[in-house]
TrEMBL record:
BP GO terms, sorted: aerobic electron transport chain
Alphabetical UniProt keywords: FAD, Flavoprotein, Oxidoreductase
Gene3D superfamilies: 3.50.50.100
Protein name listed in UniProt: FAD-dependent pyridine nucleotide-disulphide oxidoreductase
Signal peptide stretch: none
Cofactor (UniProt): FAD
Membrane-traversing stretches: none
Length: 395
């Protein structure tokens, strides 16, 4: 009987893990199934581009996994029983269940509203394709002079604000951030960011909390009203709620706690990767939710699963950071080089070179997903069970 591996979610982490498993394990002894609600691989790092009306190349998962041996199941996960090893799904045909021997949990995250009143009712986000498309349609209906407020001064907030300001120079764009503008960056990088924001005409509300979002405005923590026909909420991510209904051991963030091999600490047959998991990076500092974390987490989980199924030593994938890539519209960017634990160095790249650098990083990440069997030498090893059966048959 084949060892059944089920991967839940085909974002950067889940798709990476599935493709790498297909390259590591022989199909005689394993069956790999990917479950995903969307038929396409979504380049989440480009959602700010989608929101401003840019066309992104569609990447069908069926095409990606064609010829790899990976089975694709287009369905929405509604429950996971990690004790009985059963996943409950809903698709166009109704409710179904599939069983697994090894599970890779990679259901990712969505925008976090942090309980701020009015966010769910009135704010937009770019945490997924559908929400980015809703924002695109809303922006298309705005007329010259109307106000956009982007809440959140992290990487996503900076990219959304600058992308909108560049694409729609007729609109009035503002950015609200709890801290100073780019205050985690090197001083020289901050100066460049300030110049870009000023050039694009973005009004920055620094050291500002938003306490409520209304239909045409946002209210700050100190009671000021910021006009906004559209508010875009980019203040962080919240994990998919499925894990909270399981017996998996979770962190306070709702993320699944994993060891250095991405194996959950409570269920040895379950691995978790990407935004859904909390793993330690250099210095014991938890990895942040990002594509930069998710892809190597997918590598590590796949390599660990393959090694354990084939009775080989588990390899260690480097989980560290090298840079933070920020697009500032289509013609400018900022690459902040960082230490292994994500602290800014004094070195950075700006301008058109940085924009091309960021584009190359995005294309490279997508290429690795779309070509799952081309990055590594093919070494499809038989599972230990198959090896024992073959030795017994020839004895």
């Amino acid at each position: 009987m084949k060892h059944r591996i089920v991967v839940l979610g085909a974002g950067y982490a889940g798709a990476t893990a599935a493709g790498r498993l297909a390259r590591r394990l022989h199909p005689d002894g394993t069956e790999i199934t990917v479950v995903n609600a969307d038929a396409e691989f979504v380049e989440r790092v480009r959602m700010h581009q989608l929101a401003t009306g840019q066309r992104l190349s569609p990447r069908q998962l069926r095409d990606i996994y064609a010829g790899t041996g990976v089975r694709l199941r287009l369905a929405r996960v509604t429950a996971v029983d990690v004790d009985q090893k059963i996943v409950t799904l809903v698709d166009e045909h109704g409710v179904d269940e599939i069983a697994y021997d090894t599970l890779v949990y990679a259901l990712g995250s969505t925008a976090a509203d942090h309980g701020v009143p009015g966010v769910a009712e009135h704010a937009h986000d770019v945490a997924g394709k559908q929400s980015a498309l809703r924002l695109r349609d809303r922006l298309a209906g705005l007329v010259a002079g109307e106000n956009i407020l982007v809440v959140g001064g992290g990487l996503t907030g900076l990219e959304v604000a600058t992308e909108i300001a560049e694409a729609r120079s007729d609109l009035t764009v503002a950015l609200a951030t709890r801290g100073g503008l780019g205050d985690w960056l090197d001083a020289g990088a901050r100066r460049h960011l300030r110049r870009v924001v000023d050039r694009l005409g973005i009004a920055v509300h620094e050291h500002t909390d938003i306490s409520r979002v209304e239909a045409t405005s946002a209210i700050t923590g100190d009671g000021r009203t910021v006009p906004a026909q559209v508010t875009v909420w980019t203040t962080g991510l919240a994990v998919h709620p499925i894990a909270a209904a399981t017996t998996l051991e979770l962190a306070e963030t709702g993320q699944v706690i994993v060891d250095a091999t991405m194996r959950t600490i409570s269920h040895p047959d379950v691995y978790a990767v990407g935004d859904a998991a909390i793993a330690d990076g250099p210095g014991g500092k938890p990895l942040r939710m990002s594509c930069a974390s998710g892809i190597p987490m997918g590598w590590q989980a796949a390599d660990a699963i393959a090694a354990r199924l084939t009775d080989r030593e588990v390899p260690k994938v480097s989980l560290r950071y090298f840079n933070q890539c920020i697009s500032l519209g289509r013609r400018d960017g900022l690459i902040q080089f960082v230490t292994a634990d994500d602290q800014a160095k004094t070195s950075f790249i700006t301008g058109k070179v940085a924009a091309r650098y960021k584009e190359a990083v995005c294309k490279g990440a997508a290429w690795s997903i779309v070509h799952p069997t081309m990055l590594l030498p093919t070494r499809r090893r038989h599972t230990t069970t198959i090896q024992k059966e073959r030795r017994a048959a020839t004895a």
